[in-house]
């Protein structure tokens, strides 16, 4: 009985897919359908950038964003539990999005920090030579697999 139901369901799916393909083909032509489908799928896979946030206690939080997102976007969009992170929502007034990069990753970042970011970094706790503000880092495909250290303490510069 199970085998018969499986065959029936498979036949229904095949018929439904054929109907859908024919329906779309009558509107856009069969070539357009397959091009649109495969291009959309390819772009989506290429846009994903995996990021791991490492807390001071060693806990690793795996997350992901897409090309063009900031590291603040990744934290917000994935509800990454980093207490107080991104308090000013990326307006460069708090320094709570302070992150520490590994040296090779830091050197590969496409942009150097501007004066405003450097001023904010001066107010961050646990500052290192490879510190950046997460709201100022825009993801590129080359950053896939990035690991960033989250300082143990944060300083909200607006509270000073
Ligand atoms: S979120 Fe406030 S400086 Fe980055």
From TrEMBL:
Where is this protein localized, as stated in its record? Mitochondrion
Which terms are listed as keywords in the entry?
2Fe-2S, Electron transport, Iron, Iron-sulfur, Lipid metabolism, Metal-binding, Mitochondrion, Steroid metabolism, Steroidogenesis, Transport
| UniProt entry tagged with the keyword Metal-binding | yes
Which processes are annotated in GO (biological process)? Answer: P450-containing electron transport chain; positive regulation of ecdysteroid biosynthetic process; steroid biosynthetic process
Q: What is this protein called?
A: 2Fe-2S ferredoxin-type domain-containing protein
According to its UniProt record, which cofactors does this protein need? [2Fe-2S] cluster
According to the entry, every stretch annotated as the 2Fe-2S ferredoxin-type domain falls at: 49-154
In terms of PROSITE patterns, this protein maps to: 2FE2S_FER_2, ADX
Q: Which InterPro entries match?
A: 2Fe-2S_ferredoxin-like_sf, 2Fe-2S_ferredoxin-type, Adrenodoxin-like, Adrenodoxin_Fe-S_BS, Beta-grasp_dom_sf
Molecular functions per Gene Ontology: 2 iron, 2 sulfur cluster binding; electron transfer activity; metal ion binding
Q: So which domain of life are we looking at?
A: Eukaryota
User: What GO CC terms are in its UniProt record?
Assistant: mitochondrion
Similarity annotation: Belongs to the adrenodoxin/putidaredoxin family.
Where is this protein chiefly located?
mitochondrion
The function of this protein is: Required for ecdysteroidogenesis in the prothoracic gland which is necessary for larval to pupal transition.
């Amino acid at each position: 009985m199970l085998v018969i139901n499986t065959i029936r369901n498979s036949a229904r799916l095949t018929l439904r897919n054929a109907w859908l393909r024919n329906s779309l083909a009558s509107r856009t032509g069969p070539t357009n359908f397959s091009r649109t489908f495969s291009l959309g799928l390819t772009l989506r896979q290429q846009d994903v950038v995996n990021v791991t946030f490492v807390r001071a206690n060693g806990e690793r939080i795996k997350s992901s964003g897409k090309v063009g997102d900031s590291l603040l976007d990744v934290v917000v969009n994935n509800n990454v539990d980093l207490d107080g992170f991104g308090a000013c929502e990326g307006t460069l007034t708090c320094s709570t999005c302070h992150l520490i990069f590994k040296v090779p990753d830091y050197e590969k970042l496409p942009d150097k920090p501007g004066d405003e970011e450097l001023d904010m970094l001066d107010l961050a706790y646990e500052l290192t030579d490879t510190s950046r503000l997460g709201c100022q880092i825009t993801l590129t495909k080359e950053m896939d697999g990035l690991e960033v250290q989250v300082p143990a303490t944060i300083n909200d510069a607006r509270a000073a």
